[in-house]
């Protein structure tokens, strides 16, 4: 290559052209760091295309990109011929005895029988991949390593995520030479894309490593294919990598792809498994054909095409909502340091809005139509034996993970969860029949990819047949926010009704004629009881939603009558001796308990049986309970408390909880009480990493700005002092409305409501209740000058 002489200005301009983000002001929607990650959980950065979640480290000598495909699971029917969704046959024969013992107050005896009969069955042993045996666990697929061989002595290193476009970036220099990497997950083409660029020809060594069984690997027609299987259940999977080079050459030997002298290397990666979300076998996906279809498209697609397609697809969802909390962003500080500065008292509202948008980024990256539902870690899992199997927990976690879906205008991203709920109905009916001899379906505390709907194998954490009705709230919400009647009729209502039937059969009369849930267990707290308040509130909620749904659809009069009678006979929320909301039928709450679950406040959030406007005494009791439980907790517990305080119209307390949720944490070991917070990569620390806190944090921020659960659209119902001026656009309210709000000095200046032409409703704004009707274009505008 000929050596040209450039003047300095030209060199700077060229660098600016090649590395625009180095030179441009960093945007408010960047996470960035000036070192590579050394730890997966706390530092690596997540990207994804809905199907696959990947974490990149940005290593200089070697890049590591760990990835997992949502359907890759161990356990299930193919790991054990006796696998039966955890069902203990005819366990219901013990139900009368347990109920009688509870009625007599003999809890220890009732617990003993419940532990032997009302627990699910799992088979464990060394043949299984993970601790929970044939229950299984979500699995990492493996890691891509790209060896670049640079020494760590580089300058201008930056690693980051631009969440406005969902692009991962790594940049550095060695002397005058510049190196950059761009990563993204393309959903429409089901492809993970990794580009390596350099100003000088560079060599790379690429290999795939997996903890799973290798069936074969080869490199043909420029495509590397790894065929593997999970050892305990034989679940097949395949990952394919194509390489697109501007120059240089490729040599393949023994599983390693060597690239010589290339300035521009693009890796395309797609992965599938043989899993299908279909009871009872959960297999049969023609995964090779699926991969081949993707690969065929690659032949005629360039990197730029894939990037353009990705940005258009992502922006269509992401750009629906913008949030400005009115402060100059501190973008010049690396995100890890910014988090610490924020914890030390620096005002940084823009970090809070970044955290909010990050949740939406994570949801778009991990949950798209026809992909697997997000699990405890979304789609990001680097283990074959992850904490709690990286499964689906119903006693708070999975619901919280999807709380922001409708609120933040990502209705489509809700679909994987709704599909997952549907898949649980058949096995859940079998479980309900055998354990309790009821109609309808249930799911308990933990559920997996293979229809495990039985209680967990320990009664004190695993007994929670209420999960199905709580899940079903999401079916109703999806309708409530979209007004899609066909969906309500064909998909949601039949499942909701089956959830309600379970409760119509399960509830029994107590000595005072109230319907109670017995036996019941308030999530992981207290003991077995004759009436955990959360059960009553959730049963009330599903019956109430079924009644509303049947009214919309104008069907099912007979069922609706029964549903109403049942709903109204359920033991209502009670206020106890120290003014608290009772967690159980008995007034036994411990005012010193700071237990992370605040289950009996379900009726306040996400339910709507308790509110400051309609039931002020109960709302006050909820406040007493929350004060007693304190402002700490696991990650998700802090996030839930944000939502509770927002529903109690205490924006400052809610904001305090947001600060507590953003407490910097580095600990990755399991801690169950007060160690929650946020890692340097802004993922939520339970600890360990759980996505629920990220999502519950985002929904809590919405609850501060907009609420609609009462049927009235309330603007700024819980605005904290710290957010005196700001603007939000594109949030969703029940009724299918889209809402923009602009405010100053804590008062709404302008608002816009978008919906169907001529649709009407009510808003509460600046303490006034106003009836509105949208115009023929489906718009209503509020101005404080009106
Ligand atoms: C529930 C919670 C735990 C944890 C686990 C995954 O059981 O009680 O804190 O989040 O789910």
Q: How many helices in DSSP terms?
A: 20
Strand content: 15-25%
Distance between the termini: 69 Å
For the largest beta-sheet, the strand count, sense and barrel status come to: 14 strands, antiparallel
Task: Please give the radius of gyration in angstroms.
Answer: 27 Å
Tell me, briefly, the overall form: globular
**Fraction of residues in helices?**
25-40%
Mean pLDDT, rounded to whole units?
95
Unreliable residue stretches: 1-25
Each distinct ligand? alpha-L-fucopyranose
Which structural class best describes the helix and strand composition?
alpha+beta
Number of strands: 29
Q: Could you characterize what this model shows?
A:
The chain is of the alpha+beta class and 786 residues long. 32% of the residues lie in helices and 23% in strands. The chain has 20 helices and 29 strands. Strands 1, 2, 3, 4, 5, 6, 7, 8, 9, 10, 11, 12, 13 and 14 form a 14-stranded antiparallel β-sheet that branches. Strand 13 and strand 14 form a beta hairpin. The longest helix has 26 residues, at 411-436. The termini are far apart.
């Amino acid at each position: 290559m000929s050596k040209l002489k450039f003047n300095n200005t030209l060199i700077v301009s060229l660098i600016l052209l090649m590395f625009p983000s180095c030179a441009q002001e960093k945007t408010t929607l960047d996470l960035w760091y000036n070192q590579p990650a050394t730890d997966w959980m706390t530092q690596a950065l997540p990207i994804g295309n809905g199907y696959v979640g990947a974490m990149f480290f940005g290593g200089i000598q070697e890049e590591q990109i760990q990835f997992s495909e949502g359907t890759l699971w161990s356990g299930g029917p193919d790991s054990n011929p006796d696998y039966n969704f955890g069902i203990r046959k005819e366990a219901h024969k013990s139900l009368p005895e347990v109920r009688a013992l509870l009625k007599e107050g003999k809890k220890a005896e009732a617990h003993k029988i419940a532990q032997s009969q009302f627990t699910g069955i799992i088979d464990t042993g060394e043949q299984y991949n993970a601790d929970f045996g044939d229950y299984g666990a979500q699995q990492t697929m493996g890691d891509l390593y790209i060896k670049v061989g640079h020494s760590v002595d580089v300058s201008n290193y930056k690693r980051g995520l631009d969440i406005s476009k969902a692009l991962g970036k790594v940049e550095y220099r060695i002397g005058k030479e510049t190196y950059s990497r761009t990563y993204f997950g393309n959903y429409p083409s089901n492809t993970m894309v990794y580009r390596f660029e350099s100003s000088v020809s560079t060599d790379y060594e690429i290999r795939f490593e997996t903890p799973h069984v290798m069936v074969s690997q080869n490199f043909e027609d420029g495509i590397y294919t790894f065929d593997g299987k999970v050892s305990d259940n034989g679940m097949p999977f395949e990952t394919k990598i194509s390489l697109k080079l501007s120059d240089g050459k490729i040599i393949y030997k023994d599983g390693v792809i060597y690239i010589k002298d290339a300035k521009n290397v693009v890796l395309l990666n797609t992965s599938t498994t043989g899993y299908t979300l279909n009871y009872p076998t959960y297999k049969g996906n023609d995964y090779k054909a699926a991969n081949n279809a993707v690969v065929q498209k690659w032949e005629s697609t360039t990197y730029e095409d894939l990037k353009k397609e990705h940005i258009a697809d992502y922006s269509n969802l992401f750009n629906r909502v913008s949030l400005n909390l009115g402060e100059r962003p501190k973008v010049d500080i690396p995100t890890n340091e910014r988090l610490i500065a924020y914890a030390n008292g620096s005002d940084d509202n823009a970090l809070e809005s970044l955290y909010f948008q990050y949740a939406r980024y994570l949801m778009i990256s991990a949950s798209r139509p026809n992909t697997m539902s997000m699990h405890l870690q979304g789609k990001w899992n680097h283990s074959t034996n992850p904490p709690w199997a990286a499964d689906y927990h119903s006693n708070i976690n999975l619901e919280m993970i999807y709380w922001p879906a409708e609120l933040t205008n990502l209705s489509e991203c809700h679909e994987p969860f709704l599909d997952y709920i549907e898949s649980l109905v058949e096995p859940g009916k079998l479980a309900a029949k055998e354990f309790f001899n009821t109609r309808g379906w249930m799911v308990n505390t933990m559920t997996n990819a293979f229809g495990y709907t039985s209680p967990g194998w320990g009664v004190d954490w695993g007994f929670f047949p209420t999960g199905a009705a709580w899940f079903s709230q999401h079916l109703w919400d999806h309708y409530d926010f979209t007004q899609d009647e066909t969906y309500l009729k064909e998909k949601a209502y039949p499942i909701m009704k089956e959830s309600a039937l379970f409760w119509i059969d399960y509830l029994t009369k107590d000595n005072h004629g109230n319907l109670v849930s017995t036996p019941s267990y308030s999530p992981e707290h207290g003991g077995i009881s004759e009436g955990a308040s959360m059960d009553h509130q959730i049963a009330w909620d599903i019956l109430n939603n079924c009644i509303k749904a049947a009214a919309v659809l104008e069907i099912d009069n007979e069922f609706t009558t029964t549903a109403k009678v049942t709903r109204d006979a359920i033991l209502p929320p009670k206020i106890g001796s120290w003014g608290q909301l009772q967690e159980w039928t008995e007034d036994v709450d411990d005012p010193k308990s700071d237990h992370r679950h605040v289950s009996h406040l379900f009726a306040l959030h996400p339910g709507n049986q308790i509110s400051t406007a309609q039931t002020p005494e109960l709302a006050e009791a909820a406040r007493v309970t929350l004060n007693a439980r304190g402002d700490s907790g696991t990650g998700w517990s802090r996030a839930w408390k944000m939502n509770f305080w927002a529903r109690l119209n205490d924006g400052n307390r809610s904001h305090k909880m947001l600060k507590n949720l953003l407490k910097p944490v580095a600990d990755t070991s399991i801690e169950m009480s007060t160690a929650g917070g946020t890692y340097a990569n802004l993922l939520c620390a339970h600890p360990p990493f759980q996505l629920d806190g990220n999502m519950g944090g985002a929904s809590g921020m919405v609850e501060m700005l907009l609420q609609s659960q009462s049927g009235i659209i309330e603007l700024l119902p819980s605005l904290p002092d710290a957010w005196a001026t700001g603007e939000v656009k594109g949030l969703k309210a029940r009724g299918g409305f889209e809402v923009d709000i602009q405010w100053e000095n804590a008062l709404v200046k302008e608002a816009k409501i978008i919906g169907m032409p001529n649709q009407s409703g009510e808003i509460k704004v600046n303490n006034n209740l106003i009836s509105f009707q949208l115009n023929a274009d489906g718009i209503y505008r509020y101005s404080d000058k009106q």
